[in-house]
Amino acid sequence: MHWHACPPDLLQRFAWRDALLSVVLTPALLLPLAAAVALLLACWLQLSRPAGLALMVLSPLALSALYSSATTAWLSGWLVAQLPPAPPAPSAPPVAVLVGRGPIVAAATTDLAAQRFRRGLARAVYVSGDERATAERLERLGVPPALVAGDSCARTTWENATLTAAWLRQHHPGAPVLLITDPWQLPRAARAFARQGLAVQPLAAEPSLDPSARNRLALRESAGTALYWLQGRL
């Protein structure tokens, strides 16, 4: 197995982004913060006490809808609609690519990648932006070590795409990509990889997640998709 580990200082570059997302995705943090901001706004606008109290109550109440099952379902459907059409099936097996999404998602993506490899539907597997343990699990599932590679450097979906494309140009030039990740990230990731000039076959792996985790991924990927549109990356 060929694995590229990154220095710790590189891995800390997006600590501020992760901290901000943690606030937004955690009701126990965001809702009291919303109430505090509403109080400050009420004082600044010199609202009456009843109006100020109403603003303090209604602001977090409105935001709490973000964490509902209805919001999860709606955002999940919206994300799936962003999935680009898959290109025609390649004549040669593609390289399966997994991106770092945590151990629960990794369990689902490695299972699916190993199944595809055993069926002759993938020639090698590359793991981008994840722990070495994910690549080692692929080996335990039957993928030969010589056909497993990856890095722990990528910290964003865009970096997953750029670093993977660079590796493919060196080791499998012209090879199509079988991109395997969770259904929420897949549309944005497929478009980011396609922007690198890669022929991408998207394949969703369904991890076993509780409703709260599904909601977090739906919110996170919706924000990420909106950001990538603003940045012109999709």
Can you put this structure into words, describing what you see?
- The protein has 234 residues and is an alpha/beta fold.
- It folds into 2 domains: 27-67, no CATH class; 92-230, Rossmann fold.
- Helix content is 56%, strand content 12%.
- It contains 10 helices and 6 strands.
- Helix 6 (103-118) links the parallel strand 2 and strand 3 (124-128).
- The model has no long low-confidence stretch (mean pLDDT 90).
Summarize the structure.
The protein is α/β, with parallel strands linked by helices. The chain has helices spanning 8-11, 15-25, 27-45, 49-63, 69-81, 103-118, 132-140, 157-171, 186-194, 211-230; strands spanning 2-4, 95-99, 124-128, 148-151, 177-181, 200-204. α6 links the parallel β2 and β3 (124-128).
